[in-house]
Design goal:
- The protein is mainly alpha-helical.
- It has helices at about 5-45, 55-80, 85-140.
Length: about 140
């Protein structure tokens, strides 16, 4: 049979081992929280947030329509013998064509801005991961 001293020693060793594991778990959680905070600060400071604009098509169409109207009026005024209905139709056609081109240009600009925003988000996520991993490694929790 086991002696009482041996059992006391075994219980004492188990208590120390479990207490050490609990302490290690607490320090891991503390390190994790600290490293998450540090990584968040570093990654948000390294990549400025930029919101993509919306309404690119509408803005482009409006700008194109204004430019087309100006061009149509200018051309119509060059010819004094043109009836008003013809000049108005020409101006309307110029506005429509320029509005279509402006809408296409505005949509392209908006897509480009969205792609840039996605790249920035990806870079920010990469910066966060790198900062977090470096912090955890410095605290002795590398994997």
């Amino acid at each position: 049979m086991l002696s009482t001293n041996y059992m006391r020693l075994s219980v004492g060793v188990c208590t120390i081992v479990f207490a050490g594991l609990a302490q290690a778990e607490i320090s891991f959680d503390q390190a994790k929280a600290e490293c998450q905070s540090i990584a968040q600060q570093q990654s948000s400071a390294s990549v400025p947030a930029q919101q993509p604009q919306t309404g690119g098509r509408a803005k482009g169409a409006a700008a194109g329509a204004l430019a087309g109207a100006a061009k149509g009026k200018s051309k119509a005024n060059q010819y004094g013998n043109v009836p008003d209905e013809v000049a108005e139709e020409y101006t309307r056609n110029q506005m429509q064509d320029a509005a279509k081109m402006g809408a296409a240009a505005g949509a392209a600009k908006q897509r480009k801005q969205q792609a840039q925003a996605q790249q920035q988000q990806s870079a920010s996520a990469d910066a966060y991961t790198q900062a977090y991993n470096a912090c955890m490694a410095a605290k002795g929790f590398a994997w």
